[in-house]
């Protein structure tokens, strides 16, 4: 019997060899840390379905942002839970809105930290949908895509005015990247990039987030605007549109269950790709770790490595601070 000459194992025998030939690396430089801002002072309200994650008033958001930055996390992603919700989500774009105030305060306190804002209406609407809801007939509702675009433009512009370094539309309305690009350009914010939630599935992994952001839909679901979990070619169409409309970064969401989609986008596009390790993914790891069933630090590292191996440049993760602390 003939044996092949090459023995892969030779290069696995010591850590020096292993790291010499390692194909992928993950570091805190690639991470974005999501934070939830709420009105009030000195608020730090635990989110029961996301152990270790809190709703925080602006003072505590600033504190948390500074801690993350000091540990080497380069960016945060801000979500807001407003004082008041209404049918159009008007607190999404008012100057004194919660995200706008949080952006201003963080940029003032930690100017070198990149502040990204989530642009969507669902946290601000009384019905919890990401767009304007119109009644077709009794019991039948529809999202008015184009009416929503104007509101998203207002929200994105208000974030840029407050000092956001980048905006991230997560609503999944058609045409929103182009609409936001146009309004930013028209108001002197040509330099503010758009990270588009280009491929966002109608996923059940967002459950804990909806507790955190208090944005569960009051009726119906998001399947008319978010993607069918069964589809992958559709991801290419969504991403192509967003790229053509001027997206600077394409995001895939959720993360781990959609590594195939990350890989596909990596192969088809030259834009930077971001992966969002969403709330449900976070909570699963946390719950198992709290039971002593998984080693949290190692599993987090492995999950982040998987995103990088699949082709993600950027990873949005609630573990950003923990990972940075463990790897500093
Ligand atoms: C919607 C939005 C959602 C998330 C980010 N932006 C939830 C949804 O679409 O229902 C989910 C993030 C997570 O689960 O961590 N604005």
Description:
The protein has 328 residues and is an alpha/beta fold. It has one domain (25-326): TIM Barrel (Alpha-Beta Barrel). It has helices at residues 15-20, 58-70, 98-109, 145-162, 176-186, 207-212, 233-244, 259-268, 279-290, 296-310, 320-326, and strands at 31-37, 44-46, 54-56, 75-80, 114-119, 132-137, 140-144, 166-169, 195-200, 249-253, 273-277, 314-317. The strands form two sheets. Strands 1, 2, 3, 4, 5, 8, 9, 10, 11 and 12 form a ten-stranded mixed β-sheet that branches. Strands 6-7 form a two-stranded antiparallel ribbon. Strand 2 and strand 3 form a beta hairpin. The longest helix has 18 residues, at 145-162. The chain starts with 14 loop residues before the first helix and ends with a helix. The structure holds ligand PBG. The site of ligand PBG has 11 residues, from helix 6.
Summarize the SSE layout with pairings.
Elements: H1 15-20, E1 31-37, E2 44-46, E3 54-56, H2 58-70, E4 75-80, H3 98-109, E5 114-119, E6 132-137, E7 140-144, H4 145-162, E8 166-169, H5 176-186, E9 195-200, H6 207-212, H7 233-244, E10 249-253, H8 259-268, E11 273-277, H9 279-290, H10 296-310, E12 314-317, H11 320-326
Parallel strand pairs: 1-3, 1-4, 1-12, 4-5, 5-8, 9-10, 10-11, 11-12
Antiparallel strand pairs: 2-3, 6-7
Bound molecules: ligand PBG.
Residues 118, 120, 122, 130, 170, 206, 209-210, 222, 278-279 line the site of ligand PBG.
């Amino acid at each position: 019997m003939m044996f092949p000459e090459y023995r892969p194992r030779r290069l696995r025998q010591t850590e020096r060899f292993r790291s010499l030939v390692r194909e992928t690396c993950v570091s805190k430089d690639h991470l974005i840390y999501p934070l939830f801002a709420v009105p009030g002072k000195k608020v730090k309200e635990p989110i029961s379905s996301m152990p270790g994650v809190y709703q925080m008033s602006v003072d505590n958001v600033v504190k948390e942002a500074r801690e993350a930055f000091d540990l080497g996390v380069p960016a945060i992603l801000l979500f807001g839970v407003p004082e008041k919700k209404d049918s159009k989500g008007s607190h999404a774009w008012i100057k004194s809105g919660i995200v706008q105030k949080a952006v201003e305060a963080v940029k003032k306190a930690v100017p070198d930290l990149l502040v990204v804002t989530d642009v969507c209406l669902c946290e601000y609407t009384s019905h919890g949908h990401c767009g304007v809801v119109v009644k077709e007939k009794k019991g039948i509702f529809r999202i008015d895509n184009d009416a929503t675009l104007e509101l998203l433009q207002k929200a994105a512009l208000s974030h840029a005015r407050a000092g956001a370094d980048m905006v991230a539309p997560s609503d999944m309305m058609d045409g929103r990247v182009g609409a936001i690009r146009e309004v930013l350009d028209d108001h002197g914010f040509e330099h503010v990039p758009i990270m588009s939630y280009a491929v966002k599935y109608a996923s059940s992994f967002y459950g804990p987030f909806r507790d955190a952001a208090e944005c569960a839909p009051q009726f119906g679901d998001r399947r008319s605007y978010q993607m069918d979990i069964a589809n992958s070619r559709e991801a290419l169409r969504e991403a192509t549109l967003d790229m053509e409309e001027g997206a600077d970064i394409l995001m895939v969401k959720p993360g781990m269950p959609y590594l195939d989609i990350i890989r596909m986008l990596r192969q088809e596009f030259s834009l930077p790709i971001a992966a969002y390790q969403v709330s449900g993914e976070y909570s699963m790891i946390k719950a198992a770790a709290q039971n002593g069933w998984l080693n949290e630090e190692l599993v987090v590292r492995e999950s982040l490595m998987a995103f990088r191996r699949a082709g993600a440049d950027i990873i949005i993760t609630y573990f950003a601070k923990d990972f940075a602390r463990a790897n500093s």
